[in-house]
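Please check our next protein.
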Amino acid sequence: MEKTTEETPAVDETVVIHAAEDGKSLAEREAEYESFVWANLKRNYIAHYLHGMLGMTGFRLVNAPTFLPAYLFAISGSSFIVGLGLALQQVGGVLSPIFGATQIEHRKRVMPAAVWMGGLARVQIVGMALAGWFLSGQPLVVAILFFMFLFGLFMGTQRVVFSILMAKVIPISRRGRLQAWRNATGGLIAAILAWVAGKYFVEADLFGNGYATTFMFAAILTTIGLWALQFLMIEPEPPTTRAQTPFFERLKDFPRLISQDRGFMFFMIVQMLAITGRMATPFYILYAASTIELTGANIGLLSLAFLGADTLANLAWGYLGDKTGFRLVLLSSLVIWIASTVLLMNVHEVSAIFIAFFGLGAAQSGYMMSAQTMILEFGSRDDLPMRIAFSSTAEGIMASAGPLVGGIMAATLGYTSVFGTSIAFLAAGLLMLIFLVREPRKDRAG
């Protein structure tokens, strides 16, 4: 039988062994855990597929570098406000992953926490929609910024919880293809809906505010996905968990997590560099507006390109990752990301800009899949929640500063300076990945 889950750490005082509860040895409980995972794989695979396809479809509409940045710019008229909004969203996700990890790492079942944290993230999208319908002027801008902050706050905790759920029930050798198919079908749905939303929601100003209608539609889709996961997934109880530790005490473990694995340390630095490179993301659509007319139809078309890349690229990324490990996926995505940014800076036709947005969508989907999957393959199972939290927090710190600095640079120096700086950070991350980060799956196999 193929080994499924993360390695069990050497037992110490921080690990709670649950074998004594039923008189079985730890080895027997580990074997039962493995058997449970494989026996329920089909049902849990379907649950995660539906959650990813429907749940992430709605989040793609909100997080795509088109609708929300364009809406913020439309109601504020300021590139700085666009950058501030994206920065606040990331600030919300800086400390919340660590808090989320401390709330679940001692639990044998984490699905109840996932429902609460995921539900609260979805409430913020509903808030954006309601603000768009019932507010205007400065109060509308403030409300959207407020809900973006809360959205990032709960998305930070949600990322930890749902990553843990996947690690518990989906074998390492199946995670890539699961993400490939759910992202591909979800990306196809999101791409079509993005075009529909741009042309028939935004351009037609449906229900008095096309952007608000788009956000409410996204919230409905994500909620259906969460319900599918809640009702279909069967969650196993792990043989061991960490002992419950106070929040600030757990923070002291960060140096240990880094020092134990230099590969993980360098991988974290690559993540931080790549996330800093995303400082240009909210300004892709605004830069395109300087060369083409930013109509609702064009917003929908470029959203189709960016989100449609999920449909094709994710299939390739997922199967490549399962076959070779996700280091190659991360490397390839950084190369495509740099090339697409350079292309966007040097073209002025709608068709060429479409290709650039497609490349940017493919690259960022590859980055997200590889980063979220590689982090599950370093270190021990019982440290996994905090390892994910640390990764999310480090990303959040850089992602918070990036859009804000990008907004200031865009307002004072122009978009070209933002894109050039982004390329420099991406190139630095690419070089570090090539020379300092080994494939963690090969190390684990060894």
In short: The radius of gyration is 21 Å. Residues 1-13 have pLDDT under 50 and may be disordered.
